Amino acid sequence: MTESIAVTGHEATATPLVSVAGVSKRFGGVTAIKRTDITLYPGEVHALLGENGAGKSTLVNILAGIVQPDAGTLTVNGDTVTIHNPHAARALGISVVHQHPVVFPDLTVAENIMFAAAPPRTAVRSLDWRAVQANAIRAMERLQVKLDPRELVQNLSAADQQLLEIVKALSDDTALLILDEPTAALSKHEVDHLMEVIRRLKSQGVAILFVGHRLDEVFELADRVTVSRDGTTIISGPAAEFTPESVVTHLVGRTLESVFPKEEVELGDVHLEVRDFTRKGAYENVNFTVRKGEILGLAGLVGAGRTEISRGIFGLDPVDSGDVLIGGKSVRIAGPGDAMKYKIAYVPEDRTREGAILDQPISFNLSLAVLDTLSSFGLVKSKSDRELSADYIKRLGVRTSGPEQLISALSGGNQQKVVLGKWLATNPEILILDDPTKGVDVGAKSEVYKIVGRMAQAGLAIILISNELEELLSVSDRVITFYRGAQGREFTERPFDSETVLASMTGQH
Hints:
One of its GO terms (cellular component) is plasma membrane. By secondary structure, this protein is of the alpha/beta class. The chain folds into four domains: about 10-95 and about 175-255, P-loop containing nucleotide triphosphate hydrolases (Rossmann fold, 3-Layer(aba) Sandwich), CATH 3.40.50.300; about 105-160, no CATH class; about 255-345 and about 430-509, Rossmann fold; about 355-425, no CATH class. The strands form five sheets. Strands 6-7-8-3-9-10 form a six-stranded mixed β-sheet, sandwiched between helices. Strands 16-19-20-13-21-22 form a six-stranded mixed β-sheet, with helices on both faces. The protein has a four-stranded antiparallel β-sheet with strand order 2-1-4-5, with helices on one face. The chain is globular, with a radius of gyration of 25 Å.
């Protein structure tokens, strides 16, 4: 593996399907891509990795015909091409499946597939509904995807909608399938199913460009890896020549240890205790404590009950039995208002739906949890609001043009900083973080965990949930596993052994 764009191996024995050489693109005064090079082969999964702002989305949009490059060349099947629009991309055999499915929820599965190409017509030019159904079934059979062609798309799960997008993309002669963050909203089981479909496509000779953040998925799927940083291709080579550690170093220019540093904190007294916590069907007989300054990691697969436990502690969901003790005293938490009264803060898993109001400015979001302290006679004091916003933007390093910028215009990492700031403004003593780095790049994850480390140093008792085991084990002081709602083992000795923790997470005690 060499720090250069030209790589050896596959190129000597196969003809590239698509080559991108020296492509650049500017938007106004901002350079999105400085120099990007990537070569894609038939029957190969090629992972494109990079932080937010690395130029991944711009490259995808160039290949999809949505954006035109300022310089560089695109080659398809050996011919230099210009992809003027998405229709031209499809004509060249290039299809894109975006992170958020672009579907018609009020139409059926078959009708959605129909719109991927020219709708079939009868001899009298009316829509051939029998052919619509037959085409949909044929397209799904190719990938062994089992969806009811008559089902309304709004009734499908997120995973099935993602599979439908892939079926649509491959309903004609697709040679290159681009998957942009396809697993972001999927559970582990759904991800496994999607991976089976991707492997099936690979065996059929389809070239696949896989854009993602999750390194475990990359190393399970990819034949080749390309890393971009600051709009420039840093390195490209066979996946076997990379490790998760080396990828992280190329992504951010720092070692893995420096990305997820563990701050040493002198732990205080037990501040939060959960006794015999039970919600039937979700979790049962959960018991743990959290000390001041401690980060307690809750490890488990999706569906293990960790999110439900955190929601129960914060009063979002009812609990059938059990007690919460704060500072040694039993407290009654019937709702989030009670939790906030006891200085508990909760950063939810889905920041876009539960953590922030995207069509409102940063200042509005930062002040949401403390409006009572910023108001006088029902009116928000603008000076206090501005001072609060400026303080947390600076303290958390939010990259923004100002407090009036809409939160929807921020990167995922900066959105998460605003959500953290909203709760820090309440001066909490207990902080529950549910997958706080979900959907953000490695650099932003590092910044978020540095903030979490400072909170621990300030004496907060912290519960951390993360689906990224490596992160969880790196920053936690102690780890408890959960499997299908049942509490598993407790790990207290750092460094934690990831294989042993993973075995407990999967019920292998």
